[in-house]
Amino acid sequence: MPKFLRVGLAKRLATHLWGGLLAGLLQAALLPAAHGAPAAPATATNAAALRIASAFDPQTLDPHAVALLYHTRVVHQVYDSLVNRDQAFKIEPALALSWQNTSPTTWRFKLRPGVKFHDGAVLTADDVLFSIERAMGPTSQRSFTLKGIAAISKVDGLTLDFKLNAPDAVLPDKLLYVPIMNKAWCVQHGVERAQDYNGKQETFAVRNANGTGPFKLIKYEPDVRVQLQRFDGWWGAADPRNGQVQAVTFLSIKSDATRLAALASGEVDLVLDPPFQDVERLKTDPKLSVTTTGDLGTQYFTFDQARDELLNSDVKGRNPFKDLRVRRAVAHALNIDLIVQKVLRGQGTPTGSFISPMVDGYLPELDKRPPYDPAKARALLAEAGYPNGFGVTLDCVNVAWRDAVCQAATAMLTQVGIRTQLRSSATNQFFPKITQGTASFIEYGWTPTTEAWGTLSGLFRTWDPQGGGAFNAGRYSNPALDVLIDAVRTEPDLTRRRARVGVALRMVNDDLPYLPLYRRKLNWAMAKPVKLTMWPNDTVELRWVTLR
Question: What is the mean pLDDT of the chain?
Answer without folding.
Answer: 91
